[in-house]
From TrEMBL, chains A, B:
InterPro entries found in the cross-reference section: 4pyrrol_Mease, Dphthn_synthase
Reaction catalysed by this enzyme: 2-[(3S)-amino-3-carboxypropyl]-L-histidyl-[translation elongation factor 2] + 4 S-adenosyl-L-methionine = diphthine methyl ester-[translation elongation factor 2] + 4 S-adenosyl-L-homocysteine + 3 H(+)
Protein name: diphthine methyl ester synthase
Family: Belongs to the diphthine synthase family.
Amino acid sequence: MLYIIGLGLGDERDITLRGLEAVRSCDKVYVEAYTSLLSFGLASDGLSRMEKLYGKDIVVADREMVEEHADAILREATDSNVAFLVVGDPFGATTHTDLVVRAKKIGLEVRVIHNASVMNAIGICGLQLYRYGETVSIPFFTDTWRPDSFYPKIHRNRQLGLHTLCLLDIRVKEPSLESLCRGKKCYEPPRYMQIHTAINQLLEIEESNGKSAYDAETKCVGIARLGYEDQKIVAGSMKDLLDVDFGLPLHCLVIVGETHPVEEEMLDFYSIKSING
Amino acid sequence: MLYIIGLGLGDERDITLRGLEAVRSCDKVYVEAYTSLLSFGLASDGLSRMEKLYGKDIVVADREMVEEHADAILREATDSNVAFLVVGDPFGATTHTDLVVRAKKIGLEVRVIHNASVMNAIGICGLQLYRYGETVSIPFFTDTWRPDSFYPKIHRNRQLGLHTLCLLDIRVKEPSLESLCRGKKCYEPPRYMQIHTAINQLLEIEESNGKSAYDAETKCVGIARLGYEDQKIVAGSMKDLLDVDFGLPLHCLVIVGETHPVEEEMLDFYSIKSING
């Protein structure tokens, strides 16, 4: 049996009782590093805290390991119980569909244990979940690569009066250009896009496309460390949010569409003006 | 302090460790009946199982009670810890924004503990969450009221190649027409829309609008009891799904947009054809 278990947002105590029971029934426990490093990794003792609370040794499986050794992990699960822990929900922002497809192809029983992910926890900012359009991702620009595929999607959402959740780029364990050239494995330090970088990129793309999908006065909500005890939520114009220090990752951004009165009331509590007195 | 705690989908064991800790620290615990009856209520001993596991007496707060006595609940929370338990995520399909707004208005500290909701757990059907457009609700038609506000939304999503999550109507503790006339409180028996009813209504509205947003051959995924141990997921055309017995509530329906290969592979596992051999 392969269990794919969502850990939710926050720390090791955000697992569900059902998830904990499953982990404790397993012979082998993996935790996906790609995203988990982001939250648990912020506390340097994240892994050992998990191992202590769950009562199991946990193997950190980074993206490379999962891609290269998925078959071995699945083989283990054919004659024992294996848990694969995932930050958020197993089918949240990052997908584990591929692992499930592989497992099902060899007739392996898969059980998924759900948890919160950014896709629903974002509701805390007060904008109704059913009023969101398509979600977009904002990738880090480089000197030569400034992709804008998010732009027409945001434009459409705005024309329809819908909110847009922008997921901001994460670069963890990216091979360095030098290492690619030399055939050795060296990695760039991890990078997490901050809200002000995302807004600057958004404004640059608006300027080059010029369709008035949004501008510096467009109302947004910036959210840092969603679901953590020290999460920070600030509502204001793009221009206003450029100056807010949101602190440690992860950051995400919502571009606000048309709002109902109860949405307005919630945004008021997070407004940069009410926060700054 | 007011805690608003998501219970997730399934049963009492889907609470998170953080949520359980919070419940146990509270002097008074309410559970919202409007949605909770749907899942925990299916097992007649749902409430007592929760009380036993959480180690607290729990007051069932139906919609009427919350609307009429919100101020009293909030007053209790000003000088003690009060938990308000909610099926799914506090800001999932059903919103608790209003309670939070009222609490914040009187300066009450509110802590939200997230969990899975239909809005992210739907990812299990294999369609990527970021490829969904606006979510729609399908209300029960009556002889004289056949609202179709979902139709243009589905139409737009389909034109953009996006998937559409359809939330199906729930009628719990609706005053009966007779009771409204006599001024006494009597209630209709609860009703939960089934997938075949939703599809019949969708096809009726397509026929009267005639814009070819979808038809009987359009691929859909029907999901019953999402997140429960006996959940049922079947992919097929609207016409095919009309004949599937999905069993007990809750049901929901996804109208499939354009698909990527890995989405196709997952849908194949749930296909009505592969299930029926």
